[in-house]
From TrEMBL:
Keywords: Hydrolase, Magnesium, Metal-binding
Keyword Hydrolase: yes
Cofactor(s), names only, from the UniProt record: Mg(2+)
Protein family: Belongs to the HAD-like hydrolase superfamily. Cof family.
Protein name as it appears in the record: Cof-type HAD-IIB family hydrolase
Pfam families: Hydrolase_3
An annotated Gene Ontology molecular function: hydrolase activity
PANTHER family cross-referenced by the UniProt entry: PTHR47267, PYRIDOXAL PHOSPHATE PHOSPHATASE YIGL
Amino acid sequence: MKYKAVISDLDGTLLNSEHKISDYTKTVIKSIIDSGVKFFIATGRHHTDVLAIKKILDLDSIMITSNGARVHDEENKEILARDLPLSISREIIDLKLDEEIYVNLYAGDHWYTEKEAQWTEAFHTESGFTYTLANFEDLKNTKITKFFYLHEDPKVMEKLEKKINGLYPDQLNVTMSLPVCLEVMAKDVSKGTAIVEVLKLEDIKIEETIAFGDGLNDLEMLELVGKGFIMQNGSQTLKETLPHLEIIGDNTNDGVAKKLEEIFEIKK
């Protein structure tokens, strides 16, 4: 199969443990782009955050962000937006939670949180994109793209996942991007649904694509494409859910770039 498109997650996949892209990975991606293959980013990150990474890679392609809730074209103009229903986002803001959980949300061009979380800055060294402190009560009439919750104990996140799914059965997409990060989007939002729309625009068949991911928010994407790859450092639950997919090297050792070299027969 001659693949026409590559789709990659960022954190835990294309980015290394320092949340950066290695020079080696940059070189490999440039080689496949120069050969005529499309390279798309599909991430849970905010579109403003991803612009810096897109620039680093010199990408001229559509960008899928906020787990598929936003899609921007080659000129970074928004072409798809799917926000949470206002009635539900208002209720989610009022949820009583463990005080140690960091609650965050994306709305428009902004990332909001109610309390300082300096340790999150390590994820955004390439872009400098950061949060704005806000009182969420003031955002109840604002269209919200997604909520995401952070806590160092995965069991706390699992408990919260069950709580939200129980309150809103079949009304939301609730998923773990990391064991310590729970994300909440509108029901039909996922990287997979966004990719279907993007490939239509690009006139590329699904079977002509490959994708790389590490978290449960990559599940729909990896199931959908012609061939999906899971990072060695990826979620164990993801590996067990998709046992037929190949597990490749980890993100710290350029696992994506090495697999791309192999698939596209790039000479070193």
